[in-house]
Amino acid sequence: MKPIIDYRLYLVTDRSQSRGRSNVEVVTAAIDGGVCCVQLREKDCSTRQFLREARELMALLQPRNIPLIINDRLDIALAVGAAGVHLGQNDLPLREARRLGGDRLIIGVSAESIEDAIAAEAEGADYLGLSPVFATATKKDHAPPLGLNGVAAIRARTGLPLVAIGGINAGNGAAVLAAGADGIAVVSAIVAAADPTHAARELHRLCRPDSRLP
């Protein structure tokens, strides 16, 4: 059985922005502020280091019933028993991930357009990561920003939970949710903050209590 995930405030890790703090330190502070779901994203480390990072976060999150999603790497997600994996448009195809991971695994897919969203839903995605909503320096190779109108347009075409990411912060998060997103995913707004707990708490105040669940 798949876990039920609260997508309202979704943290994506990035050690390059963490002010020298470990993933565990940042995530511990962030969940104290209300983060509901954590994605481990590691672009520049070895497989063994990625595995260590994932195990450390599982040890932190599992007792708190907070799901861990692994970015890109299905092998890491399966090795540590993570709740799910998040796939980009150039990653392992969703159907192959489902075949290997089974029905228990939550699979999120990045959607950069209405066409991406429709295709991902048809193939069995559990949620969509709308990316990017606004211009962001966190990811260099992103598609043109969707904007609020893009979020609304995708909302009108799918019933899947929508998690919006890209340039989202406490100043614009409410507008993103009003446009139809069920949750907001953030990187620098929490990871780079001097006080990740306070930053997460400010973002959590924006989140509706009635987000769609799988």
Automatic annotation (TrEMBL):
Gene3D superfamilies: Aldolase class I. Its cofactor is Mg(2+). This is Thiamine-phosphate synthase. The gene is thiE. It is an enzyme of class 2 (transferase). It comes from Desulfofustis limnaeus. Mg(2+) binds at D72, D91. 4-amino-2-methyl-5-(diphosphooxymethyl)pyrimidine binds at Q39, L40, R41, E42, K43, N71, S110, K139. The keyword RNA-binding does not apply. Keywords: Magnesium, Metal-binding, Thiamine biosynthesis, Transferase. Condenses 4-methyl-5-(beta-hydroxyethyl)thiazole monophosphate (THZ-P) and 2-methyl-4-amino-5-hydroxymethyl pyrimidine pyrophosphate (HMP-PP) to form thiamine monophosphate (TMP). Coiled coil: none annotated. SUPFAM superfamilies: Thiamin phosphate synthase. Pathway: Cofactor biosynthesis; thiamine diphosphate biosynthesis; thiamine phosphate from 4-amino-2-methyl-5-diphosphomethylpyrimidine and 4-methyl-5-(2-phosphoethyl)-thiazole: step 1/1. Belongs to the thiamine-phosphate synthase family. It catalyses: 2-(2-carboxy-4-methylthiazol-5-yl)ethyl phosphate + 4-amino-2-methyl-5-(diphosphooxymethyl)pyrimidine + 2 H(+) = thiamine phosphate + CO2 + diphosphate; 4-methyl-5-(2-phosphooxyethyl)-thiazole + 4-amino-2-methyl-5-(diphosphooxymethyl)pyrimidine + H(+) = thiamine phosphate + diphosphate; 2-[(2R,5Z)-2-carboxy-4-methylthiazol-5(2H)-ylidene]ethyl phosphate + 4-amino-2-methyl-5-(diphosphooxymethyl)pyrimidine + 2 H(+) = thiamine phosphate + CO2 + diphosphate. Binds 1 Mg(2+) ion per subunit. Pfam families: TMP-TENI. Its EC number is 2.5.1.3. 2-[(2R,5Z)-2-carboxy-4-methylthiazol-5(2H)-ylidene]ethyl phosphate binds at T136, A137, T138, G167, V187, S188. NCBIfam families: thiE. Residues 9-190 form the Thiamine phosphate synthase/TenI domain.
